[in-house]
Amino acid sequence: MTSDGGRFDGLIVGVAVACALGAGACIDGAPVEEAVSGLRVTTVPTPAHLVSGGDTLIRVELPPNGDAAAATMALDGTDVTRAFRQAPVDRLGRPGHALLGLLEGLADGDSTLQVSLGEAQAKLTITSYPLAGPIFSGEHLEPYFCLGELGSGRDGEARQFAIGNGDLLLGDGMDADCSFDTRVDFVYRTTGEEPAFAPWPDDGSRPQDLAETTTMEGRAVAYVVRLETGTINRAIYQTAALVDPSAPAPSPWLPPAGWNGRLVYTYGGGCEAGFFQGTSTGGVLRDNMLSLGYAVASSTLNVNAQGGCNDVLSAETTMMVKERFAETYGPPVHTIGWGGSGGAMQQLLIAGAYPGILDGILPTLTFPDAISYFIDTAECRLPLRRFLNGRNPPLSDDVKNAIGGWADWDVCERSLGPRPNRIGPDDCPASIPLDARYHPVDNPGGVRCSIYDGMRNVFGTRAYDEVEPTPVQPFGRSPQDNVGVQYGLEALNRGLIDTGLFLELNEQAGGWDIDFQWRRERAAADPDALRIAYETGRVTSGSGGLATTPIIDERNYLDHVANFHASYYSFVMRERLVRDNGHADNYVLQRRMAPLSRADENLALMDEWLVAIALDATADHAAAKVVGAKPAALRDACWNDDGIEIVEPAVFDRGAIFNNTQGRCNELFPPHAGARIVAGGPLTSDVLKCELKPIDPADYAVPLTSEETTRLESIFPDGVCDWSKPGVGQVPNTRTWLSYGPSPVNRYQ
């Protein structure tokens, strides 16, 4: 198998090339191919030190006048020249003279490939890891429940995985790594009033209702899809592409005629505890993609509600599945990310921390990351909801909205608040068997379902002695914190609440412990967790890979229906890019109301954008290439109910958080704020724990009496948030491709 790293385009994609382009994908300590006299050898689409499954695709780039027939290859001294053939013509028409070879049977660990062409020599060290992983995501989570071991569904039936051809997987015959034999099925698109995918006849006969399709390259082909299903990294993966069942099997040297050379990788939403294999992918049988010739891939660990909200594990799995795809079809020209909500989180986090796995991304219902989003969920669920609902006399919804910044109190009451909080260890999805789940008394050694326990590979663990009864296991370090946060500060300063309510709110808000139980004291973050969250890119920044990633954010506006997918999260991501890069020119924000969708148009525009980047032969830095290649049709815009486009820059007025209606688009789709912004926090919304400062009367528009000042000082004895400073432990994230083991390359300590 092969995988991915750097800004890889399926041609000359070694680490050295990515570094030279300034793509932000350089991997410290990674083996770099030797190149002599124009001879270069690389793994594609993966860095050589991260291949998996005992096989890998190799590209040997020859000098312009080099004789391909004279080249020889030896793997650990054994001649493997016969594994190499002339590489197919580049799909984008870029010049190249290369050989492509599939090396199989690699042992785990290091192997050395020696390439010779006359006097020219090139050598590459290849490191292979097991197909079941891990590679760089750290030790596998344990316990881990395979498909056949999952908790029962709603009707008490065994959970199953639908192949897409009518067959179901029930988890029978899986080994200890939840693996089963890879299978290949064919489905076809039917004609008629309600086209659908149907299983290809067992006898291979051509169905009368078989549709045809014309790909984006203008090729008319039968609409038949090769559907591959298997297990990689303990996840169930699928790939789909247009393939004629009667034609020779696809290969890197003979890709199917219907494939346009592009790959779309889909990500599923949610954010739940990991520890289980899952029953669905991000979806691969997508007519709008396959009909144009795109291949589609995904896995169960790329669904955030199944992958534990663990973007490192999702990145690793994406890399490995791409590797498998390339070994079957050849390396894709580029890979486009696709998905909403938790699927958007994954795209942004992967593109930022592991650049090159995804070349461009199409997030919808965007959240920048899980950790900063959980600031809103935690504070709504416990301090705010508890106080605002429990106060007597009751508060009006207008007052509650002023404190929370929401469009509607129901955002907290019925959307954020009742939802699984993902921070509490007892918030387990139904897939995890009941008797396996953590309970502080009944099962203290059980599975803890907080995302921090699910990401202990990154955050590590420690003893939390303040929990009673005394824990029998270490818990995942948490960066959650609300010390010094003055809830409702801007509501006070705008005259929307009075001083008495402001003081009462902050006096009674309290916090939560590591078991996510309310306590009178404010929640205090683990210092190491704070540092790790920022240093590793678990809190998305505008630096790293995102600085050079094309992003089209299509925002389905839901603020008006009290949905937790608030539109301001898109502005949060934009603001981080502006802060870290001085601009957000690689980020396009589109706003509209359902059922209008720009999905098909944006897929075409993203492809156009990526092709233009690939064909840019200038010496410009990667960031300049990305901005310069952006299609003219890609501009910040919104669409009214009649489908009329309104083009104007997307703006979030930090000074108008209670009436953010500047511009025609904001009139149609006003963005609202969250509780941390009302508390004075920055629009970047990435301060997990604030630096503290002494109480300053100048911060309050309403003069405080001496009694009120004394009371405020008793509420905040150590001071209040100084939002003018970065958060505690907050540093720019410039390190990419971090490993948490077993790979020693760029290992995070």
Offer a quick outline of the entry.
The protein is of the alpha+beta class and 749 residues long. It has 18 helices and 32 strands.
Mean pLDDT: 92
Q: Describe the strand arrangement of the main beta sheet, using strand numbers.
A: 14-13-17-18-20-19-21-22-27-28-29-30
Beta-strand segment tally:
32
Q: Unreliable stretches, pLDDT < 50, 5 or more residues? A: 1-25
Q: What general outline do the C-alpha atoms trace?
A: globular
| Helix fraction bin | 10-25%
Number of helices: 18
Radius of gyration: 27 Å
Number of domains: 4
Class derived from helix and strand content: alpha+beta
- What separation lies between the terminal Cα atoms? 28 Å
What portion of the residues fall into strands of 2 or more residues? 15-25%
For the largest beta-sheet, the strand count, sense and barrel status come to: 12 strands, mixed
